[in-house]
């Protein structure tokens, strides 16, 4: 056997430094995070806002976050399970729901900071960038934070970005990764019609129609809640159009008393009665001794009283 060089020796392990916990857990890309939160020194702690988009199995999460010295501060947030208040009860993780979540977040931010940027009211699928007004405040700017998700063409990430931009936020982007975009040579060509189709759930409608023709039993099983609500492929575009208008009309719509929410555990209106909690103070040794003597005296008195009555 030839000579084998020992690489991981004692010197290696003595100098070894573990990575950050969230890097070890594969939750945070610190290489990207550093470039998203580092601010110029001459801006004197001016917040650098991020449009943070995350996906779970049942939800789409969109937040506006700014980094502080010790923690992240969330300015506004929107979740796809809130779309139930605007008429969208099912299909809360598809591209159309991601667009609605981004639109909801943008309208909430503009309302919070009293910004009069309506964005693109007519949804055409074209790339849209909000323009600053000559007078007054500029549009709210946020950088896209995708986390560890792959930025592939047609990803739902860009549905949230499109909804936020149409809602009046300034999110730097291009149309290279929107649904329907293609690269030929060194040139990118966008397809607004395909993008509009995805925004209004057209791809879901096509699949529903195709599945119903091929196997109606599988259609009734897979889209059972849609069937029970009387929703088919032809009604999806009208459903999302109505939801867009409802979001713009009232982006901070309050939760109803009987709305179940994410965990489906609510049975009625939440009890909001305030409770007072009295802090228990430490008792000194003298006070404790005095309390014991009082109890003994009381017991002695009761015994004497019982004997006198007997």
Short description:
The chain has about 300 residues and is of the alpha+beta class. It has 11 helices and 6 strands. Helix 4 (about 95-110) packs parallel to helix 5 (about 155-165), helix 4 runs parallel beside helix 10 (about 235-250) and helix 7 (about 200-215) packs across helix 8 (about 215-220).
Sketch the major β-sheet. Answer: 4 strands, mixed
Q: What is the succession of H and E elements?
A: HHHEEEHEHEEHHHHHH
CA(first)-CA(last) distance = 104 Å
Alpha plus pi helix count: 11
Instruction: Please mark out the parts with pLDDT under 50 across 5 or more consecutive residues, or reply none.
Output: none
Shape: extended
Number of strands: 6
Task: Tell me the β content.
Answer: 5-15%
Q: Secondary-structure blueprint of this entry?
A:
Blueprint: H1 10-14, H2 21-24, H3 30-37, E1 49-55, E2 60-67, E3 72-79, H4 95-112, E4 143-145, H5 157-166, E5 182-184, E6 187-189, H6 192-199, H7 202-214, H8 216-222, H9 224-228, H10 236-249, H11 285-309
Parallel strand pairs: 1-4
Antiparallel strand pairs: 1-2, 2-3, 5-6
Give a verbal description of the structure.
- The chain is α+β, with helices and mostly antiparallel strands and about 300 residues long.
- It has eleven helices and six strands.
- It has helices at about 10-15, 20-25, 30-35, 95-110, 155-165, 190-200, 200-215, 215-220, 225-230, 235-250, 285-310, and strands at about 50-55, 60-65, 70-80, 145, 180-185, 185-190.
- A four-stranded mixed β-sheet has the order 3-2-1-4, with helices on both faces. Strands 5-6 form a two-stranded antiparallel sheet.
- Strand 2 (about 60-65) and strand 3 form a beta hairpin.
- Helix 4 runs parallel beside helix 5 (about 155-165) and helix 4 packs parallel to helix 10 (about 235-250).
- The longest helix is centred in the C-terminal third of the chain and has 25 residues, at about 285-310.
- The protein is extended, with a radius of gyration of 30 Å.
- The model has no long low-confidence stretch (mean pLDDT about 90).
């Amino acid at each position: 056997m030839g000579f084998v060089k020992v690489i991981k020796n004692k010197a290696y392990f003595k100098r070894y430094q573990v990575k950050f916990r969230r890097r070890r857990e594969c939750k945070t890309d610190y290489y990207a995070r550093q470039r998203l939160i580092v601010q110029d020194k001459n801006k004197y702690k001016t917040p650098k806002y991020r449009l943070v988009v995350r996906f779970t199995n049942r939800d789409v999460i969109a937040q506006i976050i700014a980094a502080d010295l010790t923690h992240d501060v969330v300015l506004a947030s929107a979740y796809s399970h809130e779309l139930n208040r605007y008429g969208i009860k099912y299909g809360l993780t598809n591209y159309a729901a991601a667009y609605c979540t981004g639109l909801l977040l943008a309208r909430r931010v503009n309302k919070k900071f009293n910004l009069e940027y309506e964005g693109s009211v007519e949804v055409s699928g074209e790339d849209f960038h909000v323009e600053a007004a000559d007078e007054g405040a500029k549009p709210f700017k946020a950088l896209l934070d995708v986390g560890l998700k792959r930025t592939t063409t047609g990803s739902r990430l860009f549905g949230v970005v499109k909804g936020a931009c149409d809602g009046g936020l300034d999110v730097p982007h291009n149309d290279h990764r929107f649904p329907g975009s293609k690269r030929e040579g060194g040139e990118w060509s966008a397809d607004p019609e395909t993008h509009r189709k995805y925004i209004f759930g057209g791809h879901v409608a096509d699949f529903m129609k195709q599945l119903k023709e091929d196997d109606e039993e599988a259609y009734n099983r897979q889209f059972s809640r849609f069937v029970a609500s009387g929703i088919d492929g032809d009604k999806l575009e009208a459903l999302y159009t109505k939801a867009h208008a409802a979001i713009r009309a009232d982006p901070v719509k309050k939760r109803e008393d009987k709305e179940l929410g994410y965990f489906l555990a609510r049975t009625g209106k939440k009890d909001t009665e305030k409770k007072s909690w009295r802090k228990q103070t430490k008792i000194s040794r003298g006070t404790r001794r005095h309390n014991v003597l009082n109890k003994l005296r009381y017991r002695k008195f009761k015994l004497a009283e019982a004997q006198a009555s007997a």
